[in-house]
Every structure is written in structure tokens, then in C-alpha cells.
Amino acid sequence: MITRIRPATHGDLPQVMEIYAIARDFMRRTGNASQWIEGYPSTVYITEEIGAGHSFVCENQDGELVGTFCFMMGEDPTYKKIYEGEWLNSDPYGTVHRLASAGKEKGVAEACFRWCFEQCPNIRVDTHRDNRVMRQILDKLRFTRCGVIYVSNGTERLAYQKVV
């Protein structure tokens, strides 16, 4: 059970990177072999994210890190243009990126999104078309699929939004 979500620290970095490695392996095993390739996200990238205050970790009742994610408030440049649809609104929003679980606890994604909605009632998120697990989570949590966006490397992502 997730009992605490807090900002990641530089001391958490080895565990955070291990969680991302576990998540990359899980994605490959579940049919999503083309997302998070070539070591993405890198240690340098996550170090910068921790420094900027955008990286968060989930702890279980024993204080063990069991999940990690990025949460940012404000406009995400990759969300400026949306294709094959439109956003639900143009109100200020939070964005969730790089959500990953160590696979040790159920409900990590739900706990992360619940926490994010406590910070902001308007959340946007995107995922790879082949990421069936994340797509199922977003459907279960009643996110609306709004269209398609393209990330900085030019690859397509399915774009979702939910307002509570």
C-alpha cells in the first residue's frame, strides 16, 4: 500500500533509476518495446528533474520506494499542438510523465494520480500507443483520450486529460 508521496532527493537516485529499469523491462514483456529505449530516462535527465523539483517517489508502509513519476504544473511545450482531436479545456493544468512502478505494490499509478489531482484538478498525460497497461489505467481512471501529440524526438503519443 502506498502511504506517502514525496519529492525525490538526489539520495533516491539509485533506487529511482532501478525502478525505471524494472519498468523498461516490464514494458518490453508486455508488448511495448519501442518506448523508453536507449536507457531513457537517463540518470542525467532524472538528476535535473530532481533538482527542478519535478521528480516524486512513492513509498510503501515500510518506507520502501515502490514508484516514481514526474509532475509539473504549467504549460508543456509538447502539448501546444494536438492532432486528431482537442484538449478538454485550456485552463491551467498539471502534467504527469514517466510514471513507473517497481512492481512490488498494487495501485502505484492510482496513488500517483490521486496525489496529482490533490495538487491540480486538471491533469494531462500522454502515453505510447503500444503501452496497453497505461492505456488501461487511464481508461479505468476515466481519463478522456483527446488526440495525438508528438514528443521532442518526433514520435507519436496518445494524449489524455481529466478534470475533477
How does this model look, in words?
By secondary structure, the chain is of the alpha+beta class. It has one domain (2-163): Aminopeptidase (3-Layer(aba) Sandwich). It contains four helices and seven strands. It has a seven-stranded mixed β-sheet with strand order 1-2-3-4-5-7-6. Strand 2 (55-60) and strand 3 form a beta hairpin. The chain starts with a strand and ends with a strand. The model has no long low-confidence stretch (mean pLDDT 96).
Biggest sheet, in brief? 7 strands, mixed
CATH architecture: 3-Layer(aba) Sandwich
Query: Quaternary state, please?
Result: single chain
Write out the CATH superfamily name. Gcn5-related N-acetyltransferase (GNAT)
- Helical content, roughly? 25-40%
Shape: globular
Q: Give start-end ranges of low-pLDDT stretches.
A: none
* Assigned CATH class: Alpha Beta
Number of discrete helical segments: 4
Radius of gyration: 15 Å
Query: How does the helix and strand content classify structurally?
Result: alpha+beta
Q: What fold name stands as the CATH topology? A: Aminopeptidase
Notable traits:
globular, alpha+beta, 164 residues, Aminopeptidase
Helix and strand layout, with pairings?
Elements: E1 2-7, H1 13-29, H2 43-52, E2 55-60, E3 65-73, E4 94-101, H3 108-119, E5 122-127, H4 132-140, E6 144-150, E7 156-163
Parallel strand pairs: 4-5
Antiparallel strand pairs: 1-2, 2-3, 3-4, 5-7, 6-7
